[in-house]
């Protein structure tokens, strides 16, 4: 730490160097009396030192209501989003995925959850001007092998999906080099992954997106029906760790989740969905739901549903993306399809 950069009395700076104090953390971990004995300074000098280093930590961290309203200099993350690479999907989410907080994407098998996760891993690498974050992504697989062939298909077809981006910009981006794949089949490996390896990648600025596919797989085999309390504690712990990473590095966390049968309306209501329209609800229950900023659900329409909807003229399977809850969005939905070039919304 270069103490000469601080607005401190030269006597205090000399005492810091003589006491071999090298960081703000060391200062704040010591009491005022300990600092006085160690640095041989007066109580007034120590109070001035503590006030100066505290103000350094607090600088730019507090915003007024007017600054939040005006979003001056783009200091807040609330107005900044990560694009999904499709104008229809972005319109549904008012710009895309929030940068701070955990977003859950739940749905049945073959609904297109992994496809959206892969598409986000490519979108995050685009310049800010085109809805990206100019950084890479971490994709954590907890059960299936990473779909590398499908990823390569999406990379090859980016010029078709992202017609809004000039071809020379797409050609410059080395998409494959910006995606880091981790495999975590158990809770211990997952904990080590998010606390060590992912933290390191985020601290180095190499990634700005974390995708977990899927969060439910980690808990499905680890806990029985009698282990609900232990399971809830793990969910709360992991939720807090993911929130901390998201807040520190302004990084969106996308957790793909599976669904379970909702046997009653009350059970479905606890998870923020309706058992009348669809007899499934996201896995992991209310404890996990409380960790989320936003919950999205995807569903694949059956042929009778597709023919009765306004999308019957579209070839292939039609799916829905639904906002279940979010602090900034009303419950709403849109239709989309999964094509060779990626996920595309239907207007």
From TrEMBL:
<dbReference type="GO" id="GO:0090656">
    <property type="term" value="P:t-circle formation"/>
</dbReference>
<dbReference type="InterPro" id="IPR047348">
    <property type="entry name" value="XRCC3-like_C"/>
</dbReference>
<keyword id="KW-0234">DNA repair</keyword>
<dbReference type="GO" id="GO:0000400">
    <property type="term" value="F:four-way junction DNA binding"/>
</dbReference>
<keyword id="KW-0233">DNA recombination</keyword>
<dbReference type="InterPro" id="IPR020588">
    <property type="entry name" value="RecA_ATP-bd"/>
</dbReference>
<keyword id="KW-0496">Mitochondrion</keyword>
<dbReference type="GO" id="GO:0005657">
    <property type="term" value="C:replication fork"/>
</dbReference>
<feature type="domain" description="RecA family profile 1">
    <location>
        <begin position="78"/>
        <end position="259"/>
    </location>
</feature>
<dbReference type="GO" id="GO:0000722">
    <property type="term" value="P:telomere maintenance via recombination"/>
</dbReference>
<dbReference type="InterPro" id="IPR058766">
    <property type="entry name" value="HHH_XRCC3_RAD51B"/>
</dbReference>
<keyword id="KW-0963">Cytoplasm</keyword>
<protein>
    <recommendedName>
        <fullName>DNA repair protein XRCC3</fullName>
    </recommendedName>
</protein>
<dbReference type="InterPro" id="IPR013632">
    <property type="entry name" value="Rad51_C"/>
</dbReference>
<dbReference type="GO" id="GO:0048471">
    <property type="term" value="C:perinuclear region of cytoplasm"/>
</dbReference>
<keyword id="KW-0238">DNA-binding</keyword>
<keyword id="KW-0007">Acetylation</keyword>
<dbReference type="GO" id="GO:0005524">
    <property type="term" value="F:ATP binding"/>
</dbReference>
<dbReference type="Pfam" id="PF26169">
    <property type="entry name" value="HHH_XRCC3_RpoA"/>
</dbReference>
<keyword id="KW-0539">Nucleus</keyword>
<keyword id="KW-0547">Nucleotide-binding</keyword>
<dbReference type="GO" id="GO:0071140">
    <property type="term" value="P:resolution of mitotic recombination intermediates"/>
</dbReference>
<comment type="similarity">
    <text>Belongs to the RecA family. RAD51 subfamily.</text>
</comment>
<dbReference type="Pfam" id="PF08423">
    <property type="entry name" value="Rad51"/>
</dbReference>
<keyword id="KW-0227">DNA damage</keyword>
<keyword id="KW-0067">ATP-binding</keyword>
<dbReference type="InterPro" id="IPR027417">
    <property type="entry name" value="P-loop_NTPase"/>
</dbReference>
<dbReference type="GO" id="GO:0033065">
    <property type="term" value="C:Rad51C-XRCC3 complex"/>
</dbReference>
<dbReference type="GO" id="GO:0140664">
    <property type="term" value="F:ATP-dependent DNA damage sensor activity"/>
</dbReference>
<dbReference type="GO" id="GO:0005739">
    <property type="term" value="C:mitochondrion"/>
</dbReference>
<dbReference type="InterPro" id="IPR016467">
    <property type="entry name" value="DNA_recomb/repair_RecA-like"/>
</dbReference>
<dbReference type="GO" id="GO:0045003">
    <property type="term" value="P:double-strand break repair via synthesis-dependent strand annealing"/>
</dbReference>
